[in-house]
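In this notebook, the sequence line spells out the residues, with the fold written below as integer tokens. This is how one looks.
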Amino acid sequence: MSDAETDTPARRLRKPPRLPTEESPLVRVSLIGLAVVLLLAFLLLPLVAVFTEAFRQGIDGFVEAVNDPDGIAAIKLTLLVAAISVPANLVFGVAAAWAIAKYEFRGKAFLITLIDLPFSVSPVVAGLVYVILYSTSHGVFGGYLQSHGLQIIFAVPGIVLATIFVTFPFIARELIPLMEEQGTTDEEAALSLGATGLRTFLTVTLPNVKWALLYGVLLCNARAMGEFGAVSVVSGHIRGLTNTMPLHVEILYNEYQFAASFAVASLLAALALVTLGLKSLLELRYADELAAGRRH
């Protein structure tokens, strides 16, 4: 039988065989629908509920809740803690990434493990460790601190230390893979041309990692402002003194001041949305460089 005779309309309309990795249209639609439903139920609706409750009593009620003296103190403390912990982690993250990516030394694998430690340790446990170390009543260094009039636990220094611990890995973990990917060729070329070590870092190394560095700073800042577990243990919940914004939200909610608690919570939610927007912008504009920074 010739090809012309076998080329029937039914054969021409026959669909090509589906690839083994290709799902049927029904399965694709079902998976997409399930993902959208879960996204709405667990992310979008709670976010809408936060802002709805925050403005339930109108703009005046929102402003009154935010302008409460304790609320202002919580906002200032949160900004202060972030202003200290983020630069501290910035310095450490850059130094650790530089050492790990550019040099070979004994204990390198152990250092990488220590950097990842806050990812595996519960923030509450981290807070308890600081209490055991620095409590003036029963801490390891409590006697020394008490004799010198130093207060770390239930004070701002303890909150800063706990926040630094939980945000420890974010910047370093963004920079280490990227610096390892880039190698040392550019730095060696700059040094061979007579550049000093500092100038090589500022004009060669830093520009090569600037977007990954900014990405890590954004994530570190968001976590610093939203940290609850470790800060809750070391703060003492002293209203107007050691309450950050997440702790202030909890206190207001436990006191049935729902409008005020959601008003403060909406500020944290707005911060998260701004961070997400900046993160998405970086990923959109510098996708290749950021993707290279995530390759291990």
